[in-house]
Each structure stands twice: as structure tokens, then as C-alpha cells.
Amino acid sequence: MAATGSQPYRCGIKSLLDRSCLCGVRSPIGPVSVIRRTLAKSLLSALASLAAFDAQADTCPVAKDEIVTDRPDVTNSSLVVPVGSFQSENGVNVSARDGGQTVDGTNSRWRFGIAPCLEFLVDLPTYFQNIRSPGSSGFSDVAPAIKWQVSPIPGKVDLSLTFGVALPTGAAEIAGRGGVQPYLQMPWSWELHDGWGLSGMLTEFFRPSDLTAKGITETTFVIEKKITERASLFVEYVGDYPANAGPSQLLNSGGVYRLSPIQQVDFHVAFGLNHNAPSYIFGVGYSFRIDGLFADRLR
């Protein structure tokens, strides 16, 4: 979860919203495109202003820290994995849309700590199996990325910057039209008092090969509560704002339980807030981390 975390549904890139459903739906009003432009400008402005901050290695995770994952919420963790560590995050989902039902897995994200405050990650192809029409079956794209932790920034807010690209390896019915699809992402988190925390993420997806929506802006916001030393719960808003189309909005909630400092199980349940979103998504997951695999080679 975010700093205190999934790729449950987006084809190859972590999000709850299926990109293919967002295209071809014209928005009857103008504010959607205005929101998207505003969010895009905010992301670019943040990238420019934060370039002046140097990541402090002593504030980034180390092997003795507990596992922090990018699942089961859509909002990624604002923290990278420790240098020299490998982390595998996996899950299976059941979702419904327009009367159809689909199962997808394994939603695997592999994360490698390649330097202090820097990680390489890759979303592996996920297989979508339609079990009740309408719907499609096939693999999603593979999507590598680089994530840099800019942490902390003034106000004790943890923040990271991610640049990735979905490569055209999946089925067109699942991943969309061919061609590379880059994205920029900015997850952040703010730890409050008594186990409460806030987090969110701003993402700009670029789809140069798509004839309808050349870009999608996604924004998320999470409220999280630590229940015990090992367990926490969250509720999350997810909104996708495609160019020239109506938005897709979800309410996502769930929790995590740490089996050990390096193992985690999780669940989440999401419900669509409008007709462009899936009716529901239910998922479970398991994540683990292996430390010290290649730390000596990086020194």
C-alpha cells in the first residue's frame, strides 16, 4: 500500500480501470477535458519543481524495514524497495462490466532495488479470461519502469517519480491498439497520527496509437488506518479522465496483513461510481521480498 500500494485491472499498467472501456465514449460536457489539462499541468509542474531535490539515501528503505507494496490499492507506494532487494507482488481478480464477468491473474509486478532511492520495476503480462459475455480474453502488455524516491520533501510528505512504458506485447482487445504507451506517475503519502495516513497518485498515460483518446489522466486519493502492528485498512477513490471521453470512477477498499516483515497478503473490493467503470472488482494477493541478492555487486 502507499507509504505506511496493485495492478488489479489496467492492462499491463497498475490501475483499477480497463483502458479499453474509456475510449469511444464522448463526454457531453467540457469540464472533463479541463480537468485533464489541469491535472497534466500539475504533474509537469511538480516534475519540474521537484527536480531540484536530491534523494537522501538515509531516508530510503533498507533491508531491515518491513515490506511495503504497490497493492492492493491502485495508489502505488511512495517508497522504493531496499537496494539489493527483489520484491514480487501478485494477485487474482474477479470483475464484472455490462453483465459480463472476467477473471485475471497473476497481476505480477517485479521490483528491483538497483541503487539507494532507485528501483527498476516491471509489470508482467496478466491473462484475462472472460467467463461470461460480453468481454474479451488475452494477455496484457509488459510494462517496465524506473522509480525514483524523492523523500522526504518539505512537510514530511514522501514522494516518488516514475517513468514507464507499456510495450505492445498483449492482445489488442485487452491492451488496446498497438504501439508503445508511455506513462508518468507521481505517488505521494503523508503519515498522520494514531495510525492514520493519507496518500494519492497522479498519473498521465500517453496513447499515441489510439484514435479516440490520446491520453488519460488518472488521480487517486487514499485514507488508511493501521489497525494492528501487522494489519491496516484503506478506502480509495480512483478517477480516470480520458481525452475526449467521459470519466470512469471507482470506490476501492481493502486491507493488508503482514505474515512476516517480508511477506504480505491482501484483499480489495471496488465498486463503480458511474456507467463507464466496472460494476465491481474483487481481488486477493500475496507479496514477498528477498533481500541481499545483489547488494554487494552494487557497491
At the fold tier of CATH, the topology name is Porin
Q: CATH H-level name... which superfamily?
A: monomeric porin ompg
CATH architect. name: Beta Barrel
**What fraction, in percent, of the residue positions are helical?**
under 10%
Order of helices and strands: HEEEEEEEHEEEEEEEH
Spatial order of the strands forming the largest sheet: 1-2-3-6-7-8-9-10-11-12-13-14
The counted number of beta strands is 14
Structural class: mainly beta
Radius of gyration: 18 Å
Characterize the biggest β-sheet.
12 strands, antiparallel, barrel
**Gap between N and C termini:** 29 Å
Q: What is the count of helical runs?
A: 3
Oligomer: single chain
Low-pLDDT stretches are 4-13, 16-32, 49-55
- CATH class membership: Mainly Beta
Integer tally of domains: 1
Quote the average pLDDT: 84
Query: What general outline do the C-alpha atoms trace?
Result: globular
Content of β-strand: over 45%
Keywords for this entry:
299 residues, mainly beta, Porin, twelve-stranded antiparallel barrel, 3 helices, globular
Written overview of the protein:
The chain has about 300 residues and is mainly beta. The protein has a single domain, classed as Beta Barrel (Porin). Helices cover about 10% and strands about 50% of the residues. It has 3 helices and 14 strands. It has helices spanning about 30-50, 170-175, 295-299; strands spanning about 85-95, 100-115, 120-125, 125-130, 140, 145-155, 155-165, 180-190, 195-205, 215-225, 230-240, 250-260, 265-270, 280-290. The chain has a 12-stranded antiparallel beta barrel with strand order 1-2-3-6-7-8-9-10-11-12-13-14. Strand 10 (about 215-225) and strand 11 (about 230-240) form a beta hairpin. The chain is globular and about 50 Å long. About 45% of the residues are buried. Mean pLDDT is about 85; it is low at about 5-15, about 15-30 and about 50-55.
